[in-house]
């Protein structure tokens, strides 16, 4: 209740104070030398009816902001050793990278050198093989040429020998033909027939009309190689006896003249029944 009355007194006091101020101003400004017509003053006052009012909410004083606490910066720690260590670590890392790069470059160059040497070795071997093949072909060509020359030379010699042999045969045949009818040839043939007759065991079936022609092959020393009946009018016993007689008569007599020798000749035999 006391708070309400105090609140009503405030506007009344203010109105009274206003009137006092106005009145004092008029007194100061009034000209006392001139009469002033009297004019009754009307004072108007406004009565403020006391109206119960809800008391305003208590003023909440804002809490004073706390003064900022200025923290003194802590002294920076001495990290020069750490920086030095980090720098050394970074330098070692860079050195390791550089060393790795150097080793990789060295390895790459070594690999390139190895491949280059391999290529050079392959090319060298290829050239050597090509040179060997060329030499082989050249040697083969020369060998074939030598063979062809030797073949031609042998053919020439063979033809010459054949010509010489043919000429020798022709000459020998001419001499044999010339000697065939000579007394020396007749004597040579008679001597061989006589030796065969002495070795001939004439069978009982043979007679004075029996005539056998036997083919005799002999060596130059007179050794008989074979004896075969060419013709004979006797029986089988006579034929076999003639062939056996020729083989027993080996070696046959040799001619006094070598030109009279015959490797293959025919001898006519008749049994001597006297």
Protein architecture, described:
The chain is mainly alpha-helical and 274 residues long. It has 3 domains: 1-53, no CATH class; 85-180; 182-269, Fusion Protein Consisting Of Minor Coat Protein, Glycine Rich Linker, Tola, And A His Tag, Chain: A, Domain 2. The chain contains 4 helices and 3 strands. It has helices at residues 2-29, 80-180, 183-198, 236-248; strands at residues 212-218, 224-232, 264-269. A 3-stranded antiparallel sheet has the order 2-1-3, with helices on one face. It starts with a helix and ends in a 5-residue tail after the last strand. The model is unreliable at 1-5 (pLDDT under 50).
Oligomeric state of this protein: single chain
The number of helical runs is 4
Biggest β-sheet: strands ordered side by side in the sheet:
2-1-3
Radius of gyration: 85 Å
Euclidean distance between termini CA atoms: 219 Å
Strand content: 5-15%
Helix content: 55-70%
Number of strands: 3
Low-confidence stretches: 1-5
Mean pLDDT: 80
Sketch the major β-sheet. 3 strands, antiparallel
- Gross morphology: rod-shaped
Overall SS class = mainly alpha
Counting structural domains, the number is 3
The H-and-E topology, N to C, reads as: HHHEEHE
């Amino acid at each position: 209740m006391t708070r309400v009355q105090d609140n009503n007194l405030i506007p009344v006091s203010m109105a009274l104070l206003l009137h006092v101020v106005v009145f004092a101003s008029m007194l100061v400004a009034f000209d006392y030398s001139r009469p002033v017509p009297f004019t009754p003053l009307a004072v108007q006052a406004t009565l403020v009816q006391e109206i119960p009012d809800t008391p305003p909410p208590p003023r909440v004083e804002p809490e004073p902001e706390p003064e900022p606490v200025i923290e003194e910066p802590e002294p920076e720690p001495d990290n020069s050793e750490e920086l030095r260590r980090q720098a050394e670590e970074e330098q070692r890392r860079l050195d390791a990278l550089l060393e790795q790069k150097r080793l990789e470059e060295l390895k790459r160059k070594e690999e390139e050198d190895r491949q280059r040497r391999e290529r050079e070795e392959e090319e060298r071997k290829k050239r050597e093989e090509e040179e060997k093949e060329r030499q082989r072909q050249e040697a083969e060509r020369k060998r074939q040429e030598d063979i062809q020359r030797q073949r031609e030379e042998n053919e020439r010699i063979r033809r010459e020998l054949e010509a010489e042999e043919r000429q020798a045969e022709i000459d020998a045949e001419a001499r044999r033909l010339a000697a065939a009818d000579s007394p020396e040839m007749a004597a040579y043939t008679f001597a061989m027939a006589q030796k065969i007759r002495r070795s001939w065991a004439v069978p009982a079936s043979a007679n004075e009309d029996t005539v056998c022609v036997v083919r005799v092959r002999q060596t130059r020393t007179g050794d008989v190689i074979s004896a075969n009946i060419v013709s004979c009018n006797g029986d089988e016993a006579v034929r076999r006896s003639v062939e056996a007689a020729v083989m027993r008569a080996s070696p046959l007599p040799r001619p006094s003249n070598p030109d009279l020798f015959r490797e293959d000749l025919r001898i006519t035999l008749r049994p001597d029944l006297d």
